[in-house]
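Need tokens for this chain, all 280 residues.
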Amino acid sequence: MARQASKSLSETFAHRFGQAPAASGPTAADDLLQFLAERRSIRRYADRAVAPALVETLCAAALCAPTKSDLQQRDIVIVRDPKLRAGIDPLFPDMPWIAGAPVFLVFCGNNRRQRQLHQWRGRPFANDHLDAFFNAAVDAAIALATFVVAAERVGLGCCPISAVRNHAGQVSEMLRLPDHVFPVAGLTLGWPSVEGTVSLRLPLAVTVHHDRFNEDGIEARVAAYDRHRAAVQPYDRQRFADRLGNTADYGWSEDKARQYAVPERADFGAFVRAKGFRLD
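Here are the structure tokens for all 280 residues:
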């Protein structure tokens, strides 16, 4: 499903952030900026296959993204085997768009290949600490973001799935990920059957800093964002209402505070260490 006619770039930014950034003069890249400003996650897909060759091409585009020191510590697993999908999809009963997606991919951090280079070249691996894990995770995240832009640019819809880390051990086992290779996020992919929604974002004054980090007025700005978002895009349910009850002024900050008020992925550190990483 194609997106409807867009607003101007300034109007789109103003809708998303509450206020547009200072406008620059028109450039040849304005169409891409407009495209990014309007991007949205898609969780419902048409009953239409995505050609394997197109998926491979999008992977190639994603792997053109920046990578720390040219280490290239990111891999993509395209999950096509119906038996694998039958094992993975039921892990996420609250996310039916995973089972409904024609394509599911898992973006992995891969520090294994770097260690293999040291073995092959007879060099010590002298940086066996947190940075080794962090670099691979960031590389995978950059590739994921680039894939999303490439896929949406050709008309596909995507939704990143961080919840694969809720079942990191099971996903890793099913995909046969070796030591020092770990899932960072999944991604659903398909032709959209809905247009999707442009999610509102925190004001730029909260998240963009000039020269030095600045939190002046942050509580008031977040409260204003809560009110604006509740008016424009109210939540359809209150998170963990059975445990935490309901509140009249439910907004973004309350939703996010509730999200991290309930334990989740407490075993992920143990999983990463079991993969061979030292997190010193």
